[in-house]
Amino acid sequence: MELHRGREIRGRAQNVLGQMYRSGDGLPRNYGKAAKWFREAAELGDRNGQYNLGRMYQRGKEVRLDLSEAAKWFRKAALQGHRKAQYSLGILYEKGTGVSRDSKEAEKWKLKAAEQGEARAQNYCGVKYARGMEVEKNYTEAYMWLHLAATQGNRTARKNISTLKEKMTPEQISEAKQLVQEWKPKA
Q1: CATH for 40
Q2: Same domain, 71 and 143
Q3: 165 domain residue, yes or no
């Protein structure tokens, strides 16, 4: 138990070092060192390190661009419940970059992210229900997702909710607000 805890603490510390090198916060900015520390954290199983390493491979600015490698690390973090990794993995499946295009996998990961509170994924779910994209059109459900994203500062969701409200009845808005009050993120 203590050995596992030690690895966990070491992984978190290595991820923080990676963040400091990437941002130049407290240490000189050095993307190579950031990647080294993210990899160390990722290999110890730290989900934030896995996500950050995946982002570096996805961007290709700090390390060589490798979307397959990005998908690998996003998947590891996503399986541990990292909501940003889940959303990022969903986008890769949607576009077929780094992985084979698979709309069902894309939906699965984006929904998991939304259910955990990832604002971009929540906005996506709101738009999906507002337009009836692969689901029955449901303005109440759309409002709930968009409201959840908007309250986190997602500007796109704010615009989308304004447009959606024009199409809704007062009863639908009231019901949607109740859904928002009852909503709790899934673990």
Answers
A1: 1.25.40.10
A2: no
A3: yes
Global pTM reads 0.91
Assess whether 170 and 138 both reside in one domain. Answer: yes
pLDDT in tens, 115-152: 999 999 999 999 999 999 989 999 999 999 999 999 99
114 found inside a domain = no
- Select from 43, 68, 101 the last residue of a domain: 101
Is 13 in the same domain as 80?
yes
DSSP string of the chain, one letter each residue:
-HHHHHHHHHHHHHHHHHHHHHHTSSS---HHHHHHHHHHHHHTT-HHHHHHHHHHHHH-SSS---HHHHHHHHHHHHHTT-HHHHHHHHHHHHHTSSS---HHHHHHHHHHHHHTT-HHHHHHHHHHHHHTSSS---HHHHHHHHHHHHTTT-HHHHHHHHHHHTTS-HHHHHHHHHHHHH-----
Give the count of domains, the chain: 2
pLDDT in tens, 77-107: 999 999 999 999 999 999 999 999 999 999 9
